[in-house]
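Hi R.,

As promised, here are both runs. First protein below:
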Amino acid sequence: QVQLVESGGGSVQPGGSLRLSCAASGFAGSTFMYYDMSWYLQAPGKERELVARIYSDGTITNYPDSVKGRFTISRDNAKNTVYLQMNSLKPEDTAVYYCYAQNKYYSSITYWGQGTQVTVSS
């Protein structure tokens, strides 16, 4: 059974940094490498939105303007883990951050993590 477990969230002051991790388990063999991985955020009262996606070949989608230059997605296939480095955090970054996996060959095979709360406040 595939599981995505996010960690690294918490409370931080504006201008601070956090590094989110998403550890994937239950993938047979080295199949994690065949999944495109994404981070989404969902702010209170708003819809879930894409923050960043890193494809199985390492290609990264353009970040939305709201996080461009501040957030960086990366992955370590040997550790079945995807990361989101968040710098210069702003109060508007406050949200629950979710990890998402999509099979590159079978797009209907997808998984979500349970989310991790990030709160940016002075």
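And here is the second one, sequence first, then its structure tokens:
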Amino acid sequence: QVQLVESGGGLVQAGGSLRLSCVASGRTSSYAMGWFRQAPGKEREFGAGINWSGARTGYADSVKGRFTISRDNAKNTVYLQMNSLKPEDTAVYYCAMRQSSFYSTRDSEYDYWGQGTQVTVSS
């Protein structure tokens, strides 16, 4: 069984930065990863994705140019560097694993999820 554990969330002022981490344990061979977020009263939305090798990444328009997803396969860890944070980035952030080499923007195509980490951006 796969477990995903996120960390790195917190409270930050607008314009600040945070780095989220997600450590995967269990059977984790050749998988793509994604970061999603869910704000209060809103549906969960795709933020960023990365394929197994790390060579291909993708971002939602709302975070493009501000967020960077990366991974260290030796450590079974994926990161989300978030810069120039805005109040509208406030949400619970989830990492997700897809048992495929390629990421997807659809949450229904991911097989495992972390418990989420809260990010709050104050104005």
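A quick note on the second one: The chain has a mean pLDDT of 96. Let me know what you think.

Best,
J.
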